[in-house]
Structures
1.
Amino acid sequence: MLLSEMKVVAPGSLTEALRWLEEHQDRARPLAGATDAMVRVKEGQWRSPIWVEIRRLPELQRMDQADGWVTVGAAVTYGRLLRSELMAQTAPLLAAAARDVGSVQIQAMGTLGGNLGTASPAGDTIPPLFALEAEVGLCSRGGGERWVPVESFFLGPGRTVRRPDELITAVRFAPQAPGERWKWQKLGLRGAQAISMVSLALRLQPGFARVAFGAVGPTVLRARKCEAWLSQAEAFDLATVRSIAQMAWKEVAPISDVRASAAYRQQMACALLERGLREVLAV
Amino acid sequence: MISFTVNGRPAAVAVPDAKPLLDTLRDDLGLTGAKECCGKGECGSCTVLMDGEPVCACLVFTAQARGVEIITVEGIGGGPEQLDPIQAAFVAEGAAQCGYCTPGFIVAARALLDKNPHPTAAEIRRGLAGNLCRCTGYQKILQAVAKAAEGRAD
Ligand SMILES: Cc1cc2nc3c(=O)[nH]c(=O)nc-3n(C[C@H](O)[C@H](O)[C@H](O)COP(=O)(O)OP(=O)(O)OC[C@H]3O[C@@H](n4cnc5c(N)ncnc54)[C@H](O)[C@@H]3O)c2cc1C
Ligand code: FES
Ligand code: FES
């Protein structure tokens, strides 16, 4: 398929967008900020005959809090996320990750839904969403709406449980506790425009810990042994923190690629966790 | 036809939907200020404002520009006699060498100062982190933007 043969349709509502996807299934693909799509198209991939433009759909722009859930629409850009007062209060971990994405130009166009749709294990919003135990909202014309736990949403690099007739509409999660300790860390080759070699989303409350790593496995993953030890620890001294951080070595399953070797990633997963824990616990 | 506004004037182009907006601006609308360098969002030399936000025009499908307002570097300032303070500061500070990156920097800096008229040095660096320059070593560019922010461009 030539670039010049691809068509972009601009539905005016969610219902209309879902109709395009239902009628054309694998021949149609959602188009949000295009920051991944255009790069792939230029590389000769993702040559979809029909692109369904969803960037400006009003139904996908929400950012609100109700009934214990914070909900963020799929077309919300990084720029809106990181400037949002609601996000600063209820999900500072996610806002911090959004601030580390690409550059202001990428943040202006790139969306949360696009990060989930691309499903890269290095996608920077995904470890925070794992640590928040978020749910991904999917909607189709035939099946209506369903909410999938973010951990079951991803099947592998670039693969998710989304059906071709479905759109990601939003993610939702319980807000972070006001006094909770948290840390986002991203290790890339430089500050801006760098794809994560390893990333970490960390949340700690008394008796509660969430540790999610990015770019060290086929999908983002949670380090459940580290979480268990962290939530059971009575007191945190340096030795305890170091031994828990070392456990991350066995919990991650990285590959070697152009950005880093597997062994380096394993070591850095431990290092990021140790550094993050020492910072939030002041040990 | 895909219609939008460029630098305050209506534009309508008959191009493939997925043609990069950068190519449409340069080839079809004769606006060659925005430059292509990497073609994949990494260098910022193609930066334009889309509804006031800085975006990499090399990554935008032309069809996505339907109904939006685009400002290119040609739309910033009023020509050689009436430079924008950022352009004037670039001249005064000698912030350009080969000049290839300059239009992208000017547009990104304009976007930054529109949102944040008095940025700190760190905020300037962050606002321009998506723009690469292979000549100047950045120091003079950062100085020029700081100078424009203080409003004392000559
Ligand atoms: C220079 C550069 C730097 C980058 N830096 C980072 C970085 O630091 N961290 C990072 O995580 N990513 C980074 N990215 C990748 C990219 O910007 C993000 O993944 C972004 O979130 C993609 O969102 P988008 O709206 O542009 O998606 P698009 O490109 O529009 O779409 C991406 C994919 O998701 C699908 N999709 C989009 N929205 C939906 C939806 N609502 N429902 C179902 N499917 C959908 C599309 O069909 C497509 O397959 C970078 C990209 C570039 C070009
Ligand atoms: S040419 Fe667009 S970012 Fe480099
Ligand atoms: S002046 Fe030559 S690339 Fe910046």
2.
Amino acid sequence: MTEATMNYDEAISKFDPVLGLEVHVELGTNTKMFCGCSTVFGAAPNTQVCPVCLGLPGALPTLNKIGVESAIRIGLALNCEIAEWCRFARKNYFYPDMPKNFQTSQYDEPIAFEGYLDVEIDTDEGRKTFRVPIERAHMEEDTGKNSHVGGATGRIHGADYSLVDYNRAGIPLIEIVTKPITGTGKYAPEVAKAYVAALRDILRGLGVSDVKMEQGSLRCDVNLSLRETPESKLGTRSETKNVNSLRSVERAVRYEVTRHAARLAAGEQIVQETRHWHEDTGISTSGRPKSDAEDYRYFPEPDLLPIAPSREWVEELRAALPENPAVRRARLVADWGLSEIDMNTVINSGALDLIVEAVDAGVDPAAARKWWTGELARIANDRAIELEELPVLPSHLKRLEELIAAGSLNDKLARQALEGVIAGEGDVDAIVAARGLAVVSDDGPLLAAIDEALAADPAVVETIKSGKLAAAGSVVGAVMKATRGQADAARVRELLFEKLGVSE
Amino acid sequence: MSDLIKKDASELAGMVASREVSAVEVAQAHLDRIAAVDGAVNAFLHVDTEGALASASAVDAKVKAGEQLSVLAGVPLGLKDILATNGLPTTCGSRVLDGWIPPYDATVVTKLREAGIVILGKTNMDEFAMGSSTEHSAFGPTHNPWDLERIPGGSGGGSSACVSAFEAPLAIGTDTGGSIRQPAAVTGSVGVKPTYGGVSRYGIVALASSLDQAGPCARNVLDTALLHSVIAGHDPMDSTSINSPVPDVIAAAKRADIKGMKVGVIKELGGEGYQAGVRTRFDESVALIESLGAEVVEVSCPSFPAALAAYYLILPSEASSNLAKFDGIRFGNRVGDDGSKSVEQVMSETRAAGFGPEVTRRIILGTYALSAGYYDAYYGQAQKVRTLIKQDFDASFAKVDVLISPTAPTTAFKIGEKLDDPLAMYLNDVATIPVNMAGLPGMSLPIGLAPEDNLPVGLQIIAPAMADDRLYNVGAAIERELLTKWGGPILGLAPELAGA
Amino acid sequence: MSGISQEDVAHLAHLARIDIPTDELGHYAKQLDAILNAVAEVSSLDTADVVAMSHPVPMTNVFREDTPGVSLTAEQALSGAPAVEDGRFRVPRILDEE
Ligand SMILES: [Zn+2]
């Protein structure tokens, strides 16, 4: 059923939105949170399970150290405090995709708490930073996967029965919960999107997750409420579950604002409920109501011992954190002398890290950017592979640039050498030697080729002499062709003008 | 009747090792005994004749090959049906698991198999170890070999009964609030609950995770120590397992010297509510301990009277969560799935049909105690009482080396007597529960028959955490004197079972 | 501290997914009431400054290395299941609620 909505601008003029975002990220550990089963995506159903993650009677959990370490690193990257002592808790509720019928999670003692993340968005007044307050980041485990059989669409409604695969059950999850985000005004959708994007970049930078929203390794729940003014008390919120793309995060916030506003304006109550997001239609529909019956009966997990990360360990992890992606971006823009637009091009091309590596190896930033966003991007695109998959090392680019600077290769020859690198023909010098790639530096053959070119087009001599220097291009082109690209075009031009007695 | 069944485990192991008798003969003698008497006792839920003979014959092959054997190789054992056994049914005394065959072994089971111990079968128990009489088994009660009209204790009544009925010289039990010690007391056998974390819980179907501990049952202190040494030790599969050396319980059982030790009598455990004959035998033991050169003092543990109440909040709370997995989805029986009902309905029908009334009662109680709004008053408060109990023990052990009390307030009662009165049933564990609450090791040792009913009485010995060896030293010292006094094991006084 | 009604028992039974017949609710309510009265004794002690004890062994930071161990085969995993289809556990239809 489609619900009434109000025009967004009108809604925002009448109400103040308050956002809350809950993000679940699946960690990229080798094994599950509480057992040694593999976490590799896409295995045959129920082949990555053991007595522990299948919840068989008698099995006991053991805690993955990298899971804990990743949680601490995420907490630190989000400017959180790290608990000196915390425990796991059991969240008790029955659901067929949850093998033990309780989720091993954390309740009132999260491993990380009280942090924030600054996000930048474009506003009418230019770029502006919003601080998103983080309430907590805690460890828990994922559930199995239900597929619904029968009925019309494979959806849960109308299905005859379901099939469960527990491969995903027990994969480490970190749940990151914001405090109510206020003060965004009409930018609530943009702030929500920017937050999830920034979070994704941070998680990727930490190397703790592949953060693929489309594969469900990053999942987002959007909470939204409206109040009449920023001074009013918080309104009743809705929780829209599984909003699983950046665009949808933005759309879901926008939609909920318009839906809440319509209800409130009509004098109706907002029902505290979970809602389902529909990517295709761009609306959410009502799920189950939140009721008092939802009593998770949390208590400390007796099968796992408390975690008391030493301050030394925490500081060690803090010291080894990578630079915050937003800070890093700002620094590189300054260091490389790029415009924001150039930087966007670099980031969107997915070449940033590769360029940084090349620059770190001594390649000029402009050259590194030119190679990775130009020729190499084209090759990767032609082959439908990722840039990272090209076997091009920083040392290759460095050598090419050295040879270009020394005048022994030109751009065209350098591209040929690079083809050789990608074809696995060896290092740059070997390829240059084997392919005979070298700028012709002896003037003799060049002068002969110039003579030949002028003979073929005698009229051009007068044209150039008359001052139309641009006409020289055709002669240089003919010479380059005759020397199969191995000439230094600048030298050819120089010799030509010398011969005709004109000066530039 | 073969006289092999009356022999101690240590003696049988020696005979097998020296090829005086084969492990297969030993196993067969016990299988014959089970066939003869278990119809009356009902100690076993499942007898694995084939598996037992196969592992016995593997031991014999090793003997022949001159291989080094463990201290108990070739000795038969009854295994409480709460330990997961790969390829063997594991029911926990519940309908909900009827027919389930685990695809893995509990760590304790792996250790038993590696030690060449011959597992005869799975022993009866109160459903999911909830009970003190084994009457709550879905597969009928176990009968006390001393008087078949009476209960063998619980929850591990099958394990204690199979030992005292000479169906097996050894058994494994689990003890959450007394389920090894109280059955040992009422059947005239020895049972030890090791330090929490001393024996791996991996593969033991959890009742109350913070209280459960598996331990050895046998007919004498040395055999108990031998079995203890086989099953104890650190296990990386159990996060709560203690990673330090196992106390040398065998040496302690052989030492049997308590001269100069200080022994504390717990003031709060005894007196009112304890049967006269139990008190008589307990007082005699105190005198005996003094005569062996130990000093006996009275100690007070003022929070113990609240222990029972705290226990009956913590246990049901943890159990309500631990037992949630029994829903008929991944294993076990499923009830009511006619294709029309929802999974929620089928789960609820499965659980209603699968759980007996005591299990249902405790799950509902635990659900209540953990509910929002009641947590602090019940579960939270119970955990604080637990701290106080631990503090009482700490204060006591600052003064004495071991503590003693009667194991159970009464001797074995009649089957059916307390079945409809849960509170009366819970009182059976009043003396054993504080030990679990603090995670300490405790032993029950037979100290005679109550004069009024000629039924066995047990002495509870309690030691500090990871000082399990003290139990064996003290137990063996008392046992040696009593054997002299009685002219042989107390089980020699039990009536012969019909059919034998 | 107690006073448990049939409705309470019905609600708890629903939370615990046990389908207790209506005519047995009263019986359970009576028994639970008696037990709750007895366990109310936990409040008899002064615990104002007492820390709750969740684990009997005072250890912390027990971790496992992130190295894959042995999993079950699908056949083993499914061996005890009441209903199986297509390498998965077959379950009755799931209502969209908990
Ligand atoms: Zn697993």
